[in-house]
Design brief:
Helices cover 78% and strands 0% of the residues. The chain has two helices and no strands.
């Protein structure tokens, strides 16, 4: 009995489902694009931090006189 109810014409609304998916898909694609852009921004920030850390270590290393344990 329950299967007959699900198979009747009034229980099926494929055009409504397609309309809903047609609205949902662009929204999901916009979310994916936003996540992609955010990930790019984070990666770029990480690259900047690494460059600044490298520059600081080079600057610190070049201005600080090197002393070996043999000299002490």
């Amino acid at each position: 009995m329950a299967l007959q109810v699900l198979r009747t014409d009034f229980a099926r609304r494929p055009h409504l489902a397609e309309d809903a998916l047609g609205r949902q898909m662009p929204a999901l694609l916009r979310q994916l694009k936003a996540v992609h852009l955010a990930a790019d921004d984070l990666a770029e920030t990480g690259d900047d931090r690494n460059r600044f850390a490298d520059a600081r270590s080079r600057t610190t290393g070049s201005t600080t006189p090197a002393t070996s344990t043999a000299e002490k």
